[in-house]
Write a structure and sequence with these properties.
The protein is mainly beta and about 650 residues long. Helix content is about 10%, strand content about 40%. The protein has ten helices and 45 strands. The strands form eleven sheets. The chain has a five-stranded parallel sheet with strand order 7-4-3-8-9, with no helix packed on it. A five-stranded antiparallel sheet has the order 21-20-23-18-26, with no helix packed on it. β5 and β6 form a beta hairpin. The protein is globular and about 85 Å long. The relative contact order is 0.10.
């Protein structure tokens, strides 16, 4: 059973009400408010905006003597709210309550409307009792403004020779923030207990924001920990999403992996969780993202396409971090099988780790599975105007050094089948091969070795690398909804080290639009420009980037791409230009593009912004430790 509170709507975006209730600083305020309600005897609830049931989900009113629930809208009369049939607020004088609680924020006007109905001696309260300090608010005049709740969860761990690092930069100053933002943190241990709370100023506009587990451990004199880190950026502009890269590194050179931010909105479903090989263990980290427990048997997993849902038998405490070993629930599953996650809106997008018996491991994330889509009968007919329409591009890493594998992932409840094909391109933009998956069924789990396909078709990549595009292919029937996803797995030949990443498709580089595609981060579609963040590994690691210029229809023949290097204080150090052919790609390294003197001036903690005003590029990034290990994930933009 999912929590009965909206977290995200694809029509309206993120919901700030659940973030306001679930903020760690709200918990103590709610306890104080409820103590007052309990002491009052009877309590009348006035619910003009329909928020009472959401409040109940996070802070149950079970111990409070609710006399009646009142509403403003006549069309809401008689509905059941908090177990009561709602009444017209004009009946409030007969409630006999000692306190009237208005279940709304910014409730001054709503309270003024009913003051004449509140008997003398009866206290009138609202959810404004739960407000964060005004210094933490970007817009104090509208509490549920999304900019007041630019929050996310990070996964932070330090122990057993392994460390983690969260890396992003201040992109809000460039979007018009009135001053350089500050960041409030709350670190919860695996049981949900608070280990530390602190607030730091970002040192300068555009500066790097780096949270390293070793530094946190030393700063607060902590022992080894596995923890959820709540991140709240204060004073943002335009963009309420906190994006970051997450690196796992260790005292041993073979410990190297990466993924990225958790996506701040808990979902009903996630998908794309891979089953293990015989020599692997897959552990999914569930980070309870709310101040209420996840009840026993409330969340679980199932094989994709199967109704056999197996649930976690134990309760997960508020803000706790739970390690689910897939084998505990599904000991029989093996790669390339894939699993669906029944999340119930209790946690943000989870990360999973794959531990190999030889001691190596990797981290990645599942994706949000949508349950609001239906098959779109227009998509098969988009070819005339939008060519390939939806494209999911992914690297074919330099074939001499890496093996590349792809797996389509059903990612919406509407996807009973997946009509998929893969188009292979050399880095020069020349198509070299095609592979038809056919019309896959939802329960099909197919992983394909990209190098083997090229060999079977006597195809090669003259440039040494390239990319693949997953596209819709209706030659064998099937339907589509535009939410095309896949997992991509890469093995370093020299070491056997593995990294994997997953993402969804979009319409790329066409002036025509369809259902808000090509996607734009900053304005209305079409999004036809690029701004990507590339975090840089510290020496001795080198950083690589694989940029792909996918195009649904023919676009500019060459990209006009700038690589702008910044130091950790956000100061520009250098800039250079690259050019990528349409339908082509470029695999490059930091050490090859910027010379040693320039890299030394940038120092540790720097980053690169990849900027192009002529086309939308899609990117993958990682770090590499010679022939010993590497990590890889897709990039993010803002």
């Amino acid at each position: 059973m999912s929590l009965k509170i909206e977290t995200y709507s694809n029509a309206k975006g993120g919901n700030s009400f659940f973030k306001a209730l679930g903020h760690p600083l709200t918990v103590a305020k709610a306890a104080d408010l409820y103590a007052r309600l309990c002491a009052a005897g009877k309590v009348a609830i006035y619910d003009p905006l329909g928020m009472a049931e959401g409040l109940q989900e996070f802070y149950p009113l079970d111990g409070i003597n609710v006399a009646a629930v009142y509403v403003q809208r006549v069309e809401d009369l008689g509905k059941t709210v908090l177990g009561h049939a709602t009444q017209a607020v004009t009946g409030l004088p007969q409630s006999g309550a000692g306190i009237v609680l208005v279940t709304a924020f910014d409730a001054g006007r709503l309270m003024d409307h009913i003051r004449h109905l509140v008997p003398a001696g009866v206290e009138l309260l609202s959810l404004d009792e739960l407000r964060l300090p005004v210094a933490m608010l970007t817009n104090p005049n509208r509490y549920l403004d999304p900019l007041n709740f630019a929050t996310n969860f990070g996964f932070l761990r330090d122990g057993n020779g392994q460390h983690t690092r969260i890396v992003t930069c201040d992109y809000w100053s460039g979007l018009g923030a009135k001053k350089v933002p500050e960041v409030w943190f709350c670190l919860f241990d695996q049981t949900g207990k608070v280990l530390a709370q602190w607030q730091d100023a970002i040192p300068a506009a555009g500066a790097s924001l780096i949270i390293d587990s070793q530094a946190v451990r030393q700063r607060f004199n902590l022992g080894e920990f596995t923890a959820s880190l709540f991140i709240h950026v204060l004073g943002v502009a335009r963009h309420d999403i906190v994006k970051y890269a997450l690196d796992v590194y260790g005292d041993d050179d073979t410990v190297l992996s990466c993924t990225h931010d958790a996506n701040a909105w808990p979902s009903d479903l996630f998908a794309g969780l891979p089953a293990p090989h015989d020599d692997e263990t897959v552990v999914m980290w569930i980070q309870n993202s709310h101040p209420v427990p996840i009840p026993a048997h409330a969340v679980g997993i199932n094989l994709m396409g199967s109704d056999d849902i197996r649930t976690i038998p134990s309760e997960i405490a508020p803000f706790a971090c739970y390690a689910l070993n897939v084998a505990d629930l599904f000991p029989e599953v093996r790669w390339p099988q894939q699993l669906e996650v029944q999340a119930g809106r209790y946690f943000v997008r989870p990360r999973y780790e794959v531990h190999v018996k030889n001691g190596r491991s990797r981290i990645a994330h599942v994706n949000v599975e949508r349950n609001d889509l239906v098959v779109d009968l227009n998509i098969p007919n988009l070819t005339q105007h939008l060519g390939k329409s939806y494209i999911l591009p992914a690297p074919i890493m330099p074939v001499a050094q890496w093996q590349s594998v792809m797996q389509p992932n059903p990612m919406s409840t509407a996807q009973t089948d997946l009509p998929i094909a893969a188009i292979f391109y050399d880095a020069s933009g020349v198509e070299v091969a095609r592979h038809q998956f056919g019309c896959l069924q939802r329960s099909d789990s197919v992983a394909v070795d990209m190098n083997a396909i090229l060999a079977a078709q006597n195809a090669s990549l003259p440039s040494g690398s390239g990319h693949v595009e997953l596209v819709y292919d209706f030659s064998n029937g099937g339907g589509a909804d535009g939410w095309l996803h896949g997992l991509f797995r890469y093995t370093q030949r020299s070491s056997g080290h593995i990294a994997e990443t997953s993402f969804g498709g979009h319409i790329f580089n066409t002036v025509l639009t369809y259902k808000n595609e090509p996607q734009s981060y900053a304005a209305a579609p079409p999004g036809l420009s690029t701004r990507l963040f590339l975090r840089l590994g510290d020496a001795p690691l080198d950083t690589f980037c694989h940029l792909i210029y996918a195009a649904s229809t023919p676009w500019h023949a060459q990209s006009d791409t700038s690589l702008v290097l910044y130091n950790r204080m956000g100061e520009q150090i250098a800039q250079t230009k690259i050019s990528i052919p349409c339908s082509g790609s470029l695999h490059w390294r930091y050490s090859e593009v910027f010379d040693a003197a320039t890299r030394q001036r940038a120092g540790d903690g720097g980053y690169i912004i990849i900027r192009d005003l002529t086309c939308r590029l899609f990117g993958y990034h990682g770090t590499v430790n010679g022939d010993t290990a590497f990590c890889m994930d897709h990039m993010f933009g803002f």
